[in-house]
Amino acid sequence: MLMGMKNRTKRIAEGDQIVARVTTATIRDKKAKNDKITMLTSYDYGMAVLVDQAGIDMILVGDSVGNVQLGYENTLAVTMDDMVHHTRAVVRGSKHAMVVADMPFLSYHISIEEAVRNAGRLIQEGGAQAVKLEGGEERLPVVQAILNAEIPIVGHIGLTPQSVNQFGGFKVQGKDLETARKLIRDAKLLEEAGVFSIVLEGVPGPLAAKITAAATVPTIGIGAGKDCDGQVLVINDMLGINQGHIPKFVKRFADLGPAILEALRDYKSEVEEGTFPGPEHSYTIKDDVLERLY
Ligand code: KIV
């Protein structure tokens, strides 16, 4: 058994065709080697195929699916069934990246038992390799119970979108002494509990740098400056597909929205003018077959 495992590891190391998924160990190793970690969200099969092909380390099936795919105002309406459905599609589309599924609002707030069952659904039904949940000290009992069920966790602190009503809007966190100290403490407690990485969202860069330097687990920043161990963005934002407000921390690596709109308008005109489909898009039939039809 042990011998078999050794051989398999060797074949992967030799660049054989076996594609191994990124694991929690890979992610921890990256921090140890000072290699940056890449994470992007995806919500469907097609995008997951592309993100995986690009060699991104982790795909987050974020509850941002609520805003960017389902048209909700925020993430609060997203359900466990939504998350399982989208996670399954992303897992089918990826071979290499680690798939992390978000635990949606209220799926881990009611009881520890429910939280473990819901985290288990994302692994068992969804096929994810890990889950992410928001919060620090106040979520420790739930974090510990999920970890006890052998489910790896990505923590998430700072501007946690599920707390939007509590925060009174999407506000950068940790700007004053009290909230900055709370974030440092939350990161330490999550690390001690055993999460394998921590997302820092909407946190001043210098504070994120301090948290990162003190942490033994990797930090993954979004709106948290350049000194985190890795970065994550919502894919629709970075590809320029989203309409409406785009946060300051987003860089548009492409502007696909206008390109898609132009293609859709061209399609409409060509269909209406009768120039699409052309002969090159049509199938032929022999004339003698056609002539004998009527
Ligand atoms: O749901 C999501 O997309 C997220 C990222 C913003 C980290 O949680």
Give the key terms.
294 residues; alpha/beta; eight-stranded parallel beta barrel; 8 strands; elongated; binds 3-methyl-2-oxobutanoic acid
Stretches with pLDDT under 50, minimum 5 residues: 1-14
Bound molecules: 3-methyl-2-oxobutanoic acid
Secondary-structure element series? HHEHEHHEHEHEHHEHEEHHH
Q: Identify the overall geometry.
A: elongated
Largest sheet: 8 strands, parallel, barrel
Q: Terminal Cα separation, in Å?
A: 70 Å
Provide the spatial order of strands within the biggest beta sheet: 1-2-3-4-5-6-7-8
- The count of strands amounts to 8
Structure description:
By secondary structure, the protein is an alpha/beta fold. 44% of the residues lie in helices and 13% in strands. It has 13 helices and 8 strands. It has helices at 2-13, 24-32, 45-53, 65-68, 80-93, 112-124, 140-148, 164-167, 177-193, 205-214, 235-238, 256-273, 287-291; strands at 37-41, 58-61, 98-102, 130-134, 153-158, 197-201, 219-222, 230-233. The chain has an 8-stranded parallel beta barrel with strand order 1-2-3-4-5-6-7-8, surrounded by 7 helices. Strand 3, helix 6 (112-124) and strand 4 form a beta-alpha-beta unit. Helix 3 (45-53) crosses helix 5 (80-93). It is elongated, with a radius of gyration of 23 Å. The chain starts with a helix and ends with a helix. The protein binds 3-methyl-2-oxobutanoic acid. 3-methyl-2-oxobutanoic acid is lined by residues 41, 60, 62-64, 102, 199, 201, 222, 232, 234.
